[in-house]
Predict the 3D structure of the following.
Amino acid sequence: ALLAGAGVAIGVAWSGMLGNFAAGAFMLVLRPIKVGDFVGVGGLVGTVKEIGLFGTTIITPDNVTLAMLELAQVGPQDFVLDLGSGDGRIVILAARRFGARGLGVEIVPELVERSRRNAAQAGVAERAKFVEQDLFKTDLSTASVVTMYLLQEVNLQLRPSLLRLKPGTRIVSHDWDMGDWRPDRSVTVDAPDKPVGRDRRSQLHLWVVPARAEGAWCGTGTHRDARLQLAQKHQVFDAMLSAGRSAQLLAGRIEGQWLRGAGGFDAVLEDGRLRIKQPGDAPASLAGAELERCAA
């Protein structure tokens, strides 16, 4: 059945993608719709499930999809790369609700075609693209956000490539982690319609790709006597910062390009140099010091 005409009010019942109803709202649809259409209404996107005389039910993206994008703090400036994109819901929601651009990579041709149709029906086909491709042959370097719902062994195979991405790139995985590369943050999301598992909850994990700062760094200019020897395992570091006869042990985390340590130590790695913003417990004279890589 078709429902047409401008100014037709339809009740939109929220639900998960698998049919979990949550709330209702009234929206306006200015074009014909039919059951099965993927539509955008008042900032929402979803699939038309049922059209009635007084109301139309639209199945909206599940709360897990939304939570993944919120965890990554997706915004209009982002390019979201979804590995194993299925029906395209993550990339489409990123474009529709957050104004981002994105690419879904999927190996099943039918799902790629469905995703393209869904994106067109949601009005975001220019910003939400889909390709039929092996995810291991995909160029990841364009992404500022990578999302995935893959098995842990696949995550671990991807891990070296993910760690080579630009520092600050955010990675969100549904349920599965990446071994000893511990997440920077994890959240639990209710998923009452989840087809697997007993507790009907999903674990979402966020990583921020750390800069590669391991090694020896030597001071320049008026800070020529400064030296930093740094050991790094993913986003965790231990270091010795010395200047003249003073030496300070440091431990902390690398958040994108930023090194943050106990005692208020703050440094940023940019343009090939390590710039100390706050020396923490080290001598205050090191504030503003610039260090460059040197022999160990």
User: Anything to note?
Assistant: The two ends are 73 Å apart (CA to CA). The first strand starts at residue 8 and ends at 15. DSSP finds four helices and 20 strands in the chain. Confidence is low (pLDDT under 50) at residues 1-31.
